[in-house]
Amino acid sequence: MNNKSISKLLSFILRHSPDTIQLTLDAHGWADVNTLLQQCRANGHHFTMEELETVVAENDKQRFSFNENKTMIRANQGHSLEVSLNLPPATPPEFLYHGTVARFMEQIRKTGLQKMNRQHVHLTDDRATAEKVGSRRGVPHILTIRSGDMHRSGMLFYLSDNGVWLTDEVPVKYIQ
């Protein structure tokens, strides 16, 4: 398997569906690395510990983390599964960005940004990253979020290990 294929497989398993390879995540989203490798092999996905280490280290979005001794692995954010990442609330910058496409704009104008089937809405402090995310599905529309105002009104933000800002929702009144 190439690194991109391994990364996509890990995203699917660790964020959405560990049961497809009979893997169990703990309450914080961690999986045993040896069990992950064994269950992947048993399900026809062959890659080594060295390849796994490369994917974790070189993934452009830093989607995954190992624990200190590399015996456990988890996705840093993006879960549709109920996991607690144990992230403390954090103070966001005044403005954050969200990349989307035209077909979602009407709904966003009505209801704001909703987490949908994920645990959080994902935001970035880097406009170029928002453009990259939005362009995955077509011509990107970049929304500027008044995150400082949201935070001052009592809404919570969390900063994932890979630098993605997370919140439960973004009401319409905070979207520019």
Automatic annotation (TrEMBL):
Question: What are the record keywords, sorted?
Answer: NAD, Transferase
Q: Name one GO molecular function term.
A: tRNA 2'-phosphotransferase activity
Q: Cite the Pfam families for this sequence.
A: PTS_2-RNA
Q: Does the keyword Transferase apply?
A: yes
Q: Which InterPro entries match?
A: Ptrans_KptA/Tpt1, RNA_2'-PTrans_C, RNA_2'-PTrans_KptA, RNA_2'-PTrans_N
- Which BP terms in the Gene Ontology apply to this protein? tRNA splicing, via endonucleolytic cleavage and ligation
Q: What is its EC number?
A: 2.7.1.-
* Gene3D superfamilies in the record: 3.20.170.30, RNA 2'-phosphotransferase, Tpt1/KptA family, N-terminal domain (1.10.10.970)
- The question of whether NAD is a record keyword is answered with yes
Q: What does this protein do?
A: Removes the 2'-phosphate from RNA via an intermediate in which the phosphate is ADP-ribosylated by NAD followed by a presumed transesterification to release the RNA and generate ADP-ribose 1''-2''-cyclic phosphate (APPR>P). May function as an ADP-ribosylase.
Q: Which family does it belong to?
A: Belongs to the KptA/TPT1 family.
Q: Which NCBIfam families match?
A: PRK00819.1-4
What is the protein named?
Probable RNA 2'-phosphotransferase
Species of provenance: Chitinophaga ginsengisegetis
Gene that specifies this protein:
kptA
